[in-house]
Amino acid sequence: MTTALAVLAVLSGLAAPAWATVSWKRCEGAGPVETLAFAIAGVAATVPLLWALSSIRGLSPLTTLFAGALTAALIMPAKQRPPSASPAAPPWRQLGAIALVAAALAALAFLPQGVQRGDGVHRIAMHDWQKHLLMADELAVAGAVPPANPFLRASGTTPYYAGFHLLAAALTQATGSSAAVFPALQFLTFLALLLVPLVAYALADGLFNDARTALLAAAGTTLLAGFDFAVLALDTLVTAVTEWSGGLTFTGLRQLAPSTHLDYWIHHNARQFNAPLMTALWAPQHLLAAGLAILCLHQLSRHGLKRWRDILPVVPLLAAVPLLSAYVGLVLAVTLGAAWLTLTAVRERAHWLALAAGAAALLVPFIRGLAAGNSPPLGLRLSAAGSWINGALFTSLLGDNVLARLLDTPALLVVEFGVIGLLGVLGARRQLSEHRSGHAVRLVWAAGLATVVAVFLRPPFDEPNNVYARGLLLVWFILAAFGAGEWRRRSHGRGWQMAATVCLLGTLFTPVGLLLEGLSFRGTPADAVATIEQLHAATPPDAVVAIPEDVLSGRAFFLRRRLLAYDARHASIFGAPEGAYEATMSAFGAAIASPAPEEAALRLQSLRADVLLSPRDALLPTWKDSPCLPVVAEAGNWVALRVTPAC
């Protein structure tokens, strides 16, 4: 298939469900913002069928085309006359301004990628992007679903929710260039970020039927973080007085602007929650899943499933959530299950069960992949909050135990949610006491259940990790909607204005910190990057590259090839058996320690490595000019050798 036809097939496959979703929402009489939000969600709704078809035929532009067409057929409702009255025009300028500010802040964090300075070629500071790049590369090159473990090739398939990366791989395949994986992921990241104000506006407009309140909800959801700025600012002040070198270089300013959200308030990665803008920078797949989950809740609580034909359009949206984020999918499933119990009409209960059955049917290939992999089990646990310095008052007084951790959690959540949390709780209480809206009741239940599940149910990671908190994004959206209504009543209070300012400053702090971090100490040697670029021209896209473990870090940001192994922790998270990573790296170490190049090539071939990328001075001199390990790329102290055992 030519590149032009591949691009057309992929774009048609992704555009078809978006067009079908627009037709569906227009028939319902939805407003323009809600319609646009669902149109973006329609692109993501392609994922379940794209996963299912790719697991049978492999990922290709034609697979994407057929997946999109089938998804559009599910979403397209039965014919009905649209309502005669047109919805009021929303404040597009203000919504556009919110989206542009968010996009500009997000773009700051990406600026270091590829910037060359004296200490090398720099990359973005969000190290989780190595995971996104490796996974999307694996899917784009191999086209196999479920994908192989990108962090350990020898461990088989991974039980990972790779729907976001599958979309990026489809876009990459259409271009015919492996270099397109980075911009494809960036495009989807900004698409997920664009969805945030649209979803927040539609949700608040449905609750309050007021454009100003909905606009406030959109701004608050997108641009307001928690109260962590107060702690970060205090730490910065102490650093400036006691430790700062006074230099106005990137490295000097980096001392004053730590990039990790809540790095000093909560023990790193153990209890932190990332607001939407921060989630977009680190883990955009969870943000896209949260947007779809809120739209599902909004659709079901506002419109319901009164007829059988109302079920089909929601099925792919619901099924896409766990393929984008298992954690958001988990809390959404629990929330919908609890909502189902509150239904009274037998007919409506049957419709909801049919919806769940349809989504589960689309997820069968994913569930089979989970069963075949080594997915970490879930368990009830609550991580330590730290010491009294970072808010763990009860842990400090009562010792580190379950009760103390439980008591510390509300205080930590107040800091993380900031003015969104405080106003949201007050607004939800007022809404329920004054209106008793069925829509509001369901959303409050959703927020409460999402909090309980996300805080307590998590996999047993060996190291602190905050992926469990992604489900709290549902809480953020819902509380922001109620908080916007409450802000209209209380915004004249000086205290609330100061609280909102502190939260907004915290939003600005993190992207600036990420920019400074990326430009200060993330440099990769320029000769290594030059060698990688030559390697791309000299090797096929499916080549497997082996890199010595002591120089692995950072290369995945520039290397668009599959890797033999990369990072023990992520290999385990992605389903590698216990000890498999260590065994592979031990065998790799023995291979590159072999004096005879013939033996080294045979050992590397047994590991299924096609190319060895390494600093030249780390290789044995006996390998020089060997036909078993010929040079395919070199620059400065870096060299790439082709593994050729039949020499």
Description of the molecule:
With about 650 residues, the protein is mainly alpha-helical. About 60% of the residues lie in helices and about 5% in strands. The protein contains 26 helices and nine strands. The protein has helices at about 5-30, 30-45, 45-55, 60-75, 90-110, 130-140, 165-175, 180-210, 210-225, 230-240, 250-255, 275-280, 285-300, 315-325, 325-340, 345-360, 365-370, 395-400, 400-435, 440-455, 470-490, 495-520, 525-540, 570-575, 580-590, 595-605; strands spanning about 115, 120, 380, 455-460, 545, 560-565, 610-615, 630-635, 640. It has a five-stranded mixed β-sheet with strand order 6-5-7-9-8. A hairpin with a 2-residue loop joins β1 and β2. α14 crosses α15 (about 325-340). The longest helix is centred in the middle third of the chain and has 33 residues, at about 400-435.
How would you describe this structure in keywords?
26 helices, 647 residues, five-stranded mixed beta sheet, mainly alpha
Biggest sheet overview: 5 strands, mixed
Q: Helicity range of the residues?
A: 55-70%
Biggest β-sheet: strands ordered side by side in the sheet: 6-5-7-9-8
Structure summary, number of beta strands = 9
Cα distance, first to last residue? 36 Å
Please tell me what the overall shape is.
globular
Oligomer description: single chain
Could you tell me the strand content as a percent range? under 5%
The low-confidence runs, each spanning 5 or more residues with pLDDT under 50, are: 261-268
Helices, by number, come to 26
Rg (CA only): 25 Å
Average pLDDT taken over every residue: 85
Structural class: mainly alpha
